[in-house]
Amino acid sequence: MRFSLSEINADDLVNILAGDPEELGVHLQLVERDVVIDGHNVKIHCHCLTVDGNGRVRPKRLAEFMRNAVADYAIPRSKLQQARERDFKYRSSSAVAEIHRQACTVFTDLEKTGEGGELLLFLLAERFLKIPQILCKMDLKTDTRMHYHGADGVYAGVTAEGLLKLYWGESKVYGDATTAIRDCLASLAPFLAEEDHEGAERERDLVLLSDKADLSDKSLTEAFKLYFNRQSPLSNRVQYCGLALIGFDADIYPADGSKIVSEELVVAAKKELIRWSTNVGNRLKLEKLDQFEIEFFCVPIPSADEFRANFLEALGGTR
What we know:
Radius of gyration: 19 Å
Largest sheet: 7 strands, mixed
Number of strands: 7
Shape: globular
Distance between the termini: 38 Å
Structural class: alpha/beta
């Protein structure tokens, strides 16, 4: 299969998405989507934890779900596809199992890790918004106890007019929502607002995209890379957008482990979303991001510290 410059379209990118979108709903309940703020180009999407038949939320199940998707996030698509093909050829599962083991080992074991938030952003981007990751940065890490510098993820979409929408991803999982909003948008701002030049914050990731972008199909990948070739006219057809995620402690959940009804949890989250959205709008103005298109995920959770601890525990048995 060969791709000419005009043949890269939205369907080509949708076809490389990983995972079952319906599985996301087992662990995360949609509260609201596409919430807009006057004067801004942001769309806010809010999810909370789902409630099971016993009236309880299950944060450890969310961590295990995330753990099971680490290979989709941390391993280049072409390498994962090669493993699947080998297993199909030999009627085995060993190659994919080894890929999953390798993926688990590249995550840090630091207590204050932010990599769980980055993985959650990936899952929501791909399975909820259908925006695929096109640069696997975890595969570029040289030290498992360090976080990768640059954006927390790079994703892409294509408009009907052939404009490439490049989404820079940032995630923060904190105890306090206001602080998470502030730090997330402050980290995202340079990737969107800085003038294009060799010293820009995004420049290193753009260089990586021109060399390391992986869309599984070789011809599609090579055509895609032309958008990041400074000698190609297509480099002027790239629009910078943002993908942001904040996870934070929220008192909408029962503090004593008592039962809760799903509908009551959603209603409580909707009330609080008004305040969270106002904070997002205020911060967008301060960071001068009000004219940039941003998909913003709010994920209230019982405890940010517990979220990180559960994720590390889920990974621990597979390292």
